[in-house]
Amino acid sequence: MVKVRAARPAEAEDLTGLVMRSKAHWGYDAAFLAACAPELRIRAGDVTARRVVVAENGRGEVVGVASLEGTPPRAELGLLFVEPSAVGQGVGRLLYRDVLRRAVELGVRRLVIDSDPHATGFYRAMGAVPVAEPAASAASPAAPAAEAGGTALVRFEAAPVPLADWARAWTGGGRAVHLGNVGEFNAQFADATLDREQRPAHHYACLAAFYSPYPAALVLPRPVPRGWTELVCRQLGWTGVDVYDGLLDADPGLAEAVRARPALAALLTGSGLPLVPWGRTRAFGRLAGRPWRDGELRYESKSAAHGLFGRILADGGHPGIVLPRQWRVDGRWAAARMLAARTRAGESTVLKSEHGVGGSGTTVLTPARVRAAGGARAVLRRLPRGPLLVEEYVGGAASRGDEGPRDLTYDGFVDEAGRAHEVGGAVMEVADGCYRGATVGPGVVPGWAEKSLIAFGAAVGRELADSGYRGWFDVDFVADGTGRLAPTETNLRLTGPSIAFMVAARLDALRGAGHLVRIADRVELGARLPEAQLDELCAALARGCAELGAVFVPAIPTGAFEPAPWLGVLVAARGREVLDAAEALVRAEALAVGAMFGPS
């Protein structure tokens, strides 16, 4: 295993030799290398002054060298060279990430990189951003790998940042054990709209990989491909992640399955690391040794959340928020009569169950759809049994004069001390009431919505804290046509947008600030693939996105083995155009895998 350590002055001559061998690897002629030699030389006195570190393999051999030069807030990556025999083994990636980590500790906020033309692909893949500012000349000690045959160096920059404050508060700044208890969380509500076998929930449990920015262990109900965890770890710079999968034969709930294995339970709960679930359950409370508070999930109910929103708005102070009217109906025929009356009046209606995930149990009905279905009673007969809420439909964006987002969300959490923390806002993709994905990052939430969204989300967080709730939450909104937001529900658990926030925090700390991250719940595959071919596809998608300057992370691999195969994915980039291009590439390549089998 390769590790990074501080260089020693006595190694200076040997390190110079490594640098020259690495430079020669690109095919430069002897005359050019001789011209570069004075600037490439490392002297004993440089080792400390230039903050030189080396990468050392398990045999004690030095296989790479890097330096961090200058003073905060601006510094330079002066050296980054890898022994030719070790190229392609991740040594350069390890050294680069170490430089960024040390830059953060020093207070550097602008890291300048003057890259040899042959290394531009590496720096782009590592998240550095090309800039128009001229690169250093051949004589610059900060850029010794200078011009070759008239080919200028290429300047890149990175913006080193520490892990976001909210992410440090979420797990205490360290690693955590992630429990993928999605099915267990859903089952406690016994909602008729949720699949009794919880098959979708067990796929969603794969998102346990991303319950914090850096897991120590993943605990999963179903087996997952080994190649998946290896690629995710490589893309997010994780090491030492233990995976405990395939724990459920039937469905007692994941926390109970862990408790039924005393050795595993002791290992996970005795590690001293936070235990992070998808959502709180009574069984999780028993596993974690945390008292279960009766009613702590009451605002997971859509009618209870609506009442909470009304109480907050009754105090005033949120002019950018409007609350749609909602009625709880006593039975199906009462709902049918109300729906029929609203249809005759030309009004669209939202029918909701008390609980549901990803839009399950939510049906948007325009008058045209009601008539096409054969009337209100016919609509109601097709819906699952159980309590129903009838809600006023919030109209769309005509008077804002833009095509801005309609579905937004606020994410935050309440820590064990009862303090509410803001994470941020996201834009969701919702189709016919069903969640399809979300995008987070700088500038994603439009300016007209941001202040109202953050203020109201924070108010909900304070109310949840006062009610005794502890854990992650979000507040979902729909934008109306006048620049106001209508809150529609709270989710007292982790969510798809929360996963994107976790990955954005990790990538910002790993690669520099400014990542946009998009989670797409369902990317259709053109064919079911054996596990090895799925690994090959994901590796190819990672390479393709890297060439665009984006990051690809497979999020839900197990859907690929369904009769109608699909993947959940994350893509990240520093600009919307690159992000959109990366998602388009992933969708096209995933769908094209069926072509290898010929016409159906």
- β-strand percent reads 15-25%
Shape: elongated
Q: What helical percentage do the residues reach?
A: 25-40%
Number of helices: 20
Q: Largest sheet, described in full?
A: 8 strands, antiparallel
Class per helix and strand makeup: alpha+beta
Oligomer: single chain
Low-pLDDT sequence parts: 137-150
In short:
With 600 residues, the protein is of the alpha+beta class. It has 20 helices and 23 strands.
Helices and strands in order, then pairings?
Blueprint: E1 3-6, H1 12-24, H2 30-40, H3 46-49, E2 52-56, E3 62-71, E4 74-82, H4 91-106, E5 110-115, H5 120-125, E6 129-130, E7 154-158, H6 165-171, E8 176-179, H7 182-187, H8 199-204, E9 215-219, H9 226-236, E10 242-244, H10 254-259, H11 262-269, E11 275-277, H12 282-288, H13 302-314, E12 326-329, H14 332-344, E13 349-352, E14 362-365, H15 367-372, H16 376-381, E15 388-392, E16 407-414, E17 420-431, E18 434-440, H17 447-467, E19 471-479, E20 485-491, H18 496-511, E21 516-524, H19 531-548, E22 551-556, E23 566-573, H20 576-592
Parallel strand pairs: 4-5, 8-9, 8-11, 9-10
Antiparallel strand pairs: 1-2, 2-3, 3-4, 5-7, 6-7, 12-15, 13-14, 13-15, 16-17, 16-19, 17-18, 18-21, 19-20, 21-23, 22-23
Helix pairs in contact: 1-2, 9-19, 19-20
